[in-house]
Amino acid sequence: MDALVQPGMVSDLPSDTRNTDEDRSVTPEKDYFIARNGIRYAGTHLIIDLWGATNLDDPDHIDATLREAALATGATILHGHFHHFSPNGGVSGVLVLAESHVSIHSWPERDYAALDIFVCGECDPYKAIPALKRGFLPERVQLSEHKRGLIG
Question: Which residues are annotated as modified residue Pyruvic acid (Ser) in the UniProt record (predicted)?
Answer without folding.
Answer: 100
